[in-house]
């Protein structure tokens, strides 16, 4: 217990839908990498995972997969744009059910943070899974991209 100096389990949820667009997707990747540069990424520090969504949800890497800034930035840079529909609710369900599981590297008693990048046009309901995540202690930030 007590204060952890910025230590967290952080999952990025990135919209890879057609409506977001390839150019904005590339901007999001650059922004994610700039955030990663500002974090204390290490075995005992912050852990980062990332999922991309469009019509389907794809785990790009889990919380336990990369423990250096360079490895995370390489994985982000190599991520391929999906470019289909926009199922933000499915992405939030996946984040809640899988991304913050011990199996995927989540740690006990470490703050859980999710940053969602989206153009805001979801084809499914987001409120159920956003509320479940929030009620379980996940802090969610949403960043609008594009129009």
From TrEMBL:
It comes from the Eukaryota. Coiled coil: none annotated. SMART domains: VWA (SM00327). Residues 9-147 form the VWFA domain. PANTHER family: COLLAGEN ALPHA (PTHR24020), COLLAGEN ALPHA-1(VI) CHAIN-LIKE (PTHR24020:SF87). This is Matrilin-2.
């Amino acid at each position: 217990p007590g204060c952890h100096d910025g230590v967290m389990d952080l999952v990025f949820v990135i919209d890879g839908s057609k409506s977001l667009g390839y150019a904005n997707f590339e901007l999001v990747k650059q922004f994610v990498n700039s955030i990663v540069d500002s974090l204390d990424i290490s075995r005992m520090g912050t852990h980062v995972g990332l999922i991309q969504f469009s019509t389907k949800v794809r785990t790009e890497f889990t919380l336990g997969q990369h423990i250096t800034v360079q490895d995370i930035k390489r994985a982000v840079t190599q991520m391929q744009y999906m470019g289909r529909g926009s199922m933000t609710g499915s992405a939030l369900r996946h984040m809640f059910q899988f991304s913050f599981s011990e199996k995927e590297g989540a740690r006990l008693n470490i703050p859980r943070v999710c940053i969602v990048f989206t153009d805001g046009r979801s084809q499914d309901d987001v409120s159920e899974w956003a509320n479940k995540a929030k009620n379980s202690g996940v802090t969610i930030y949403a960043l609008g991209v594009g129009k």
